[in-house]
Amino acid sequence: MASFDELHRWMAWAATMPTDDVLHAVIDEAIVDFDEDAEWRYFAFERDGGALVGGTGLHRRGGAEELEIGYWTRTDRTGRGYASEASRALTTAAFESPLGIGRVRITMDPANAASAAVPRKLGFALEAEYQREPVTPGHTGTAMSWVMDKSRWTR
Q1: Quick check: 140 and 110 in contact, CB under 8 A?
Q2: What share of the chain is helix, strand, coil (3-state, %, to 5)?
Q3: Which domain covers residue 102, as residue numbers?
Q4: pTM of the model
Q5: How many structural domains compose the chain?
Q6: First to last CA, the chain
Q7: Pairing label, strands 125-131, 103-108
Q8: Cα–Cα distance between 26 and 133 in angstroms, integer?
Q9: To which H or E segment does residue 25 belong?
Q10: The domain that contains 76 carries what CATH number?
């Protein structure tokens, strides 16, 4: 809730302020998806103190041998490398999984500079910029798609 303004700007799933019931339903759905190997969502916590700093996940979007990483960082914790650290760990996990994953993708609006810094920092290659329907107040109508191939991943 503390990050609603930023999440609402970039994320379609944050169109309205969630109630406690909605948040619990999202967590319940994530558990089912995880158990069914549909997608894998995680909370991110600080090592010191255990404060919730964001969320991340691997999502089955794209081809059978591809997963997409999504992430968000709590407003008062941005710029500290949490999204990069989580994305690095998830990229490694995807490639080391028994799923036969050959590519990992990260997609965002180019106006979201903080989000776009993550794949650059990790060495992902910009594969495409393409037009898409703006679905949030921050969207420009363009998306950037960054990819990492298993053969190039060095951790």
Answers
A1: yes
A2: 35, 30, 35
A3: 4-152
A4: 0.89
A5: 1
A6: 33
A7: unpaired
A8: 25
A9: helix 20-35
A10: 3.40.630.30
